[in-house]
Every structure is written in structure tokens, then in C-alpha cells.
Specification:
single chain, about 210 residues
Length: about 210
């Protein structure tokens, strides 16, 4: 009997038999070479598989080695030109505000002042002609362009009448022309309505 942790001694014959048994379990030299070659092949195949998998992952992620991802196509520059309807409204809104101011003065504080009333009428005629020039420069579709030409002809006739009223020698004559000026508004308003409809805009507020 031997206690725990104590090695038992072997006789020389037993030691020799043990060594021979262990040697018999070892592979022969050719077998060892074959096993080494197989291990090497397995390592090479494993490395190739890993390389292929990594390559596919990189390609899927858009960062394949030795290939630069193509730069995204540049977006077209946004157009700075306003649509025809918006461009028309910008012109009409600004000039209508100027006309409203001049007519308010003509019918209010300047009604009894010949010089001031004539200046108001000159400002009105200048605004009407400025409107015509700016509308003529707009790039409009064919239908709207025809409406714009009708509008500018009617508005030019009204501007001529307004300019003539601005030369009145007296307040009586000046105010007597108001009826003709109001009548000249009608063809202008019709042309404006047609143009706005062609541009897809709501009807004008003629108040």
C-alpha cells in the first residue's frame, strides 16, 4: 500500500516494458509527415476561407480593399428662377401697393390740392408703365404670354389716360376724368383675371 502523493517504484523490467508500450503507440515517421502535411493543409484552407469571408464582408460594407467606392453623383443645382405664377404675383403685389398708396392720397389729403393731385396721377401712370415693362420680361407659357400681352395693352391705354389727367389745369377738370379712369380699369381687370387663371392663381381682389 502506498499513501496519497507517494510514487510507487518500478523494477527495471517493468520500466522497459512501459517505455516500449509508449513507443509502440507513436506514429511512424511517414505517418507523422502525413499528419503534419494534413495539418498544414487544414491551416491553409482555413486561412483561405477566412480571407474569402473577410473579403465578402468588406465588399458588402462598401470598403473593399484596393477599390475606392465611387463618389455619389452630384445633385443638380436648384433653379433660382421663380415659377411664372410666383414671379407675376411678386410684381403685381408690389405695384398694387404703390397704386393703393397713390390713390389713397388722391382721394384723401390731396383731393383739394391741384399740384399734389397731379403728382399722385403721375406716380400712378409711372407705376402702371413699370408694371407693363416687368410683365413683358417674364418667361411665361404660350397661353399666359398671350394673356399678358392683352393685359399690357389695356394697362398702357389706362396709363396714357392717367398721364393726360395729370396735366389737368384745374381740379374740376382733373376730377371730371375720374369716370374715364374708372372705366379704363374694366379691360385691365378682365385681362388680369384671365392671366391669373392661366397661371393657376386665384382671382384678383378688386375691392
Amino acid at each position: 500500500m502506498t499513501g496519497p502523493g507517494v510514487r510507487r517504484s518500478l523494477s527495471p523490467l517493468q520500466l522497459k516494458g512501459t517505455i516500449m508500450n509508449q513507443l509502440s503507440t507513436l506514429p511512424s515517421a511517414p505517418a507523422r509527415n502525413t499528419m503534419a502535411a494534413m495539418a498544414t493543409d487544414r491551416r491553409l484552407v482555413g486561412a483561405a476561407v477566412i480571407t474569402a469571408v473577410v473579403g465578402m464582408l468588406l465588399a458588402a460594407g462598401g470598403c473593399s480593399p484596393h477599390h475606392t467606392a465611387p463618389a455619389p453623383a452630384a445633385s443638380p443645382a436648384p433653379s433660382t428662377a421663380a415659377p411664372p405664377g410666383a414671379a407675376y404675383l411678386a410684381i403685381a403685389t408690389a405695384d398694387n401697393e404703390r397704386l393703393d398708396t397713390a390713390f389713397d392720397h388722391l382721394d384723401g389729403r390731396d383731393r383739394a390740392d391741384l399740384g399734389a393731385a397731379r403728382a399722385d396721377l403721375r406716380a400712378i401712370a409711372a407705376t402702371e408703365r413699370d408694371f407693363d415693362r416687368r410683365i413683358a420680361r417674364l418667361a411665361l407659357p404660350p397661353g399666359a404670354s398671350a394673356c399678358a400681352k392683352t393685359l399690357t395693352r389695356a394697362n398702357e391705354a389706362r396709363a396714357d389716360l392717367t398721364a393726360r389727367a395729370a396735366t389737368s389745369p384745374s381740379l374740376k377738370q382733373l376730377h371730371s376724368l375720374r369716370g374715364q379712369l374708372n372705366a379704363a380699369n374694366t379691360p385691365v381687370e378682365h385681362a388680369v383675371t384671365a392671366l391669373r387663371a392661366d397661371l393657376g392663381l386665384p382671382r384678383p381682389d378688386t375691392h
